[in-house]
């Protein structure tokens, strides 16, 4: 039978397997029925002998090639259930045939991947523990179209790239294999033979686990099922698509918290609607500062397991809090096992070497012209939305995606086909991403960090724009911080930085941020502010308050160990924001804002109105950024009426001096700020005061109506009396 086996064997391709150059080993090595029996083959380098075990019976295999290639012809008519048993030194190893299991990726899925529309690619690519038939193991799949061959290596095959060569799918260049016996927890990489014969090892781009940075070894991870109970939240979050609801985001790193209960408790206590996490994906620290994602589909080991993160998201949703992730589809880090020249060619990165590396960070820029690269990134968004129920993404470094010349000097970049600096491929990618994500997951928040001047970033894809929900307003933050860091006597020279934002506030839908990237921790921020410790604290409160009352959704990053009075302050700010529609319902409409004072540079005071379509929902806001307090500050008001203070950053319960307006104040008919009516109020140093406005006419109309009714009743009574008197006179005349 050994001679018969030899006759059926494809020796040119077997030689390619032996030399590690066969891209489709399943075609050669899968069991098959012949006229003379069932041919079983196996490549087991470094073994002394091999046999096929069928039930209780074993069939010795013939060593057909000294490199370790064996074969046997079983005297059977059908392929049986079988295993290999090999002797390696003094040890016996028994295992199932990796090439018996067929490809797990369908032709339809492969076509979708090649077209860039296989949004669930993460379900097949990567490493997935499961079964093939009745055999347990792990299915591996990786995209490396220009490789000569690819093998999966790990503890399970002693990191020997000869033992488990993967099978290449002809259309896409995906290499795949089901390896029996490999379980969750196994370490692995892909060994890739590139053109020229060199061999390199790469981490799994779609892998769900790692050994943890700085290690770049992938780990087979079982995501498993999770019993989500957040249906009510998932329905509620659809309302965020309207941009007419309050969004207050807390920025943090999950590693800053002892446990999820502590974080959830802080967020409930302070009243945030969302939390934004610094990278949850595995990442490497950049030498230039910041981070770069190194494993897009893996929860960082700095935090814990996938199950840990799912539990955290569930707990947050049960508390009514959404989850936003930092996400970096702009660039990826350079390291030997990373995406750079993954199959020996520029695969994930820009094809032009001169444009592939970003000069500011030394990272690689993605090739958005490749449908498969775009699919990798869009599928990653779907992965976090599906598997972890996250509620949005803040896209880092969008300007590096949009502008070909971003961070480059003249002569360091290549213009597009229209001789301009727009990255046309990145534009199409962002439109594609935003449109499909919004269609599939209404209410998801897509936030762009873009510090350039790209127009209408938050207009819809249907209008041929990029379709983000919000833009990170770096300009607003920079202006405010520059103003606050100036000495009080010099702030008048920077006064326009308080008011400039209203020149462009409605050109986009903005996120206003005083986060860790902007101000660092509380201590770092306070150090930059002038004055005593109490004055610094007052200015910090004023900064948070100004952010809250300014048009735009909010993001702040106070420390998790804030004192009780600061926690109460944050809660009351968020409560103010959520309670009064004037602070959010017309953020996208310039009719929702009106200046009262915006030229008081010597006083360092601004005053304005926040409005809705309902006049009685108007709020008056007065902000004082000077160290001078006022007992009777004169400010114009929109109409005659009552003005009641509903918030004051100087309230004693927040640690302030208590310069507040305890009672409602009536306006007077005295011109101020080019308005007929005005108000005199207490205004604290470094303080922000907010007032509701009740128009006098509303009360007056009620009084007038009562007067009119009373007059009508009096007239009716008088008329009745006259009639009675007239009758009496007539009766008296008749009697006479």
Note the overall shape: elongated
Helicity level, as a percent range?
A: 25-40%
Q: What strand line-up does the widest sheet have?
A: 17-18-21-24-25-26-27-28
Based on the coordinates given, report the CATH architecture of the largest domain.
Alpha-Beta Barrel
Structural class: alpha+beta
User: Which radius of gyration do the C-alpha atoms yield?
Assistant: 35 Å
Output mean pLDDT.
Answer: 93
List the uncertain runs.
699-704, 728-736
Q: Can you tell me the CATH superfamily of the largest domain?
A: Glycosidases
CATH topology of the largest domain: TIM Barrel
Kindly, what is the distance between the CA atoms of the first and last residues, rounded to a whole number of angstroms? 152 Å
Counting structural domains, the number is 4
Count of helical segments? Answer: 18
CATH top level of the largest domain is Alpha Beta
Residue fraction in strands: 25-35%
Number of strands: 36
What does this structure look like?
There is one protein chain. It contains 18 helices and 36 strands. The chain folds into 4 domains: 2-95, Immunoglobulin-like (Sandwich), CATH 2.60.40; 107-219, Sandwich (Immunoglobulin-like); 246-268 and 275-472, Glycosidases (TIM Barrel, Alpha-Beta Barrel); 595-697, Sandwich (Immunoglobulin-like), CATH 2.60.40.1180. The model is unreliable at 699-704 and 728-736 (pLDDT under 50). The termini are far apart. Helix content is 28%, strand content 26%. Helix 16 packs parallel to helix 17 (564-579). With 736 residues, the chain is an alpha+beta fold.
